[in-house]
UniProtKB/TrEMBL annotation:
GO annotation (BP), single: monoatomic ion transport
Keywords recorded for this protein, A-Z: Disulfide bond, Ion transport, Membrane, Transmembrane, Transmembrane helix, Transport
Organism encoding this protein: Chaetorhynchus papuensis (pygmy drongo)
Coiled-coil stretches noted in the UniProt entry, renumbered to this chain: none
Family per similarity comment: Belongs to the organo anion transporter (TC 2.A.60) family.
Superkingdom: Eukaryota
InterPro entries xrefs: MFS_trans_sf (IPR036259), OATP (IPR004156)
Gene behind this protein: Slco1c1_2
Keyword Ion transport listed: yes
Alphabetized GO MF terms: bile acid transmembrane transporter activity; sodium-independent organic anion transmembrane transporter activity
PANTHER family (alphabetical): ORGANIC ANION TRANSPORTER, SOLUTE CARRIER ORGANIC ANION TRANSPORTER FAMILY MEMBER 1B3
Name of this protein: Solute carrier organic anion transporter family member
Length: 279
């Protein structure tokens, strides 16, 4: 009778809401951070600064995998049960690691790292070169503001549909970049999601070991590539066309090398009822 109704938990709702709040808080950092750098840095230094920003952003998941590897070695009820009474090991399929510990450590670290942002000034002194380049634009903006003062009109609030069509979807360069990013991240996330499972199933590695291997082998080269790309763009002073050609060449080379994964693999396990018949 006790097996007829399995116990259910609604803790996943708290995890969902927590991740939603975390995403809302983390989202402005990248677009606003890049805009902040673009506005108050010299033009030739912006690629390096943006590359540093993305490189540090890639180090976050790397340390996250390492932290996940450490937490997976700890039993889920650590601090609440006697660890000496636990008879299973992390290699056992019934083992559940302390997945919740990473949220506490990551949340506390994020809170501490957010404090310095409160002391950043809203505006910095712009470089002289940037001021010269933006003189004409400033004159146009001042002229427009003066005209509005002389002939004030009630400005109607713009609808989201108009903003999306005019500013975002109407910009062909931005729309193309958005589609390209969606395709790239879709492939990258799939690879990052199933590769640890593949290591666990085919090579008999524990969850902790798989996370450690993924964190050390996949993410550092990506961060190094982003940083080197920023240095190359600064050295050769690439414009939008040069940067596009450079990005296309590197992406094509990356996909060509990734194609070699089709020639590396292991045979599936023999599982009765799945890969072979019961007979």
């Amino acid at each position: 009778a006790g097996c007829e109704k399995e116990p259910s938990s609604y803790m996943w709702i708290y995890i969902l809401l927590g991740n939603m709040l975390r995403g809302i808080g983390e989202t402005p950092i990248t677009p606003l951070g890049i805009s902040y750098l673009d506005d108050f840095a010299k033009e030739e230094n912006v690629p390096v600064y943006v590359a540093c920003l993305h490189t540090i952003a890639m180090m976050g998941p790397m340390f996250g995998f390492l932290l996940g590897s450490l937490c997976a070695k700890l039993y889920v009820d650590i601090g609440f049960v006697d660890l000496g009474s636990i008879t299973i090991t992390p290699q056992d399929s019934r083992w559940v690691g302390a997945w919740w510990l990473g949220f506490l450590i990551g949340g506390a670290t994020s809170f501490l790292s957010a404090i310095p942002f409160c002391f950043l000034p809203k505006s910095l002194k712009k470089p002289e070169e940037a001021n010269k380049d933006k003189t004409s634009r400033g004159l146009l903006e001042n002229t427009g503001a003066l005209r509005n003062k002389l002939s004030p009109e009630k400005t109607k609030p713009r609808k989201w549909s108009v903003m999306l069509k005019g500013k975002l979807l109407g910009n062909r360069m931005y729309f193309t970049f958005l589609c390209c990013s969606l395709l790239q991240f879709s492939g990258f996330i799939g690879f990052l999601t199933y590769k640890p499972k593949y290591l666990e199933q085919q090579y008999g590695k524990s969850t902790s070991k798989s996370n450690f291997l993924i964190g050390m082998t996949s993410l550092p080269p990506v961060g190094l590539g982003i940083f080197l790309g920023g240095l190359i763009m600064k050295k050769y002073k690439m414009g939008i066309i040069g940067a596009t050609k450079f990005s296309f060449a590197m992406s094509f080379l990356a996909y060509a090398i990734s194609f070699l994964h089709f020639f590396v693999g292991c045979d599936n396990y023999v599982v009765a009822g799945m890969t072979v018949s019961y007979e």
